[in-house]
Amino acid sequence: MIWKELNDNLIFHNLKAFDNIEVLQLMGDAMIQEGYGEEGFTEAVLKREKDYPTGLDVDGIGVAIPHTDAEHVKKEGISIAVLDHPVEFDAMGEDGCRIPIKIVIMFTVAGKDKHIDRLLQILDMIKDEEILQGLLDAKNKEEIRTVIQKREKSDIN
What global pTM score does this model have? Predict the structure, then answer.
């Protein structure tokens, strides 16, 4: 359950950043500060994003899902940022294509092949247009948490 893992210090509402590097640095450093990432976590996320971009256009809404290998992780967690204005990320699987991103979901997994399961869980969540619009419309951190929580509770029922 993603919402149970959401630490308030890892939810960013109207995050202001100049570019995707600044977004990843702010979020990655917060993951380290909150005990989710090892020293070097942020640099590892930046390198992985350069080698394996995570920008996606989901029905006109730009979403990025940056992460890195388990060796840089202390414990599992997730960070969500809704940006105050879009910043460009390279597109996942498309060389030379950049996407204006408004939502960034960074995650950590503490197991060698567990990132695929978490990535699939996040992809399943973001294909729901209501969730993405709810995140964009959220007025604060609590509303961001509520959007995720509402979706996951409906999945249980």
Answer: 0.93
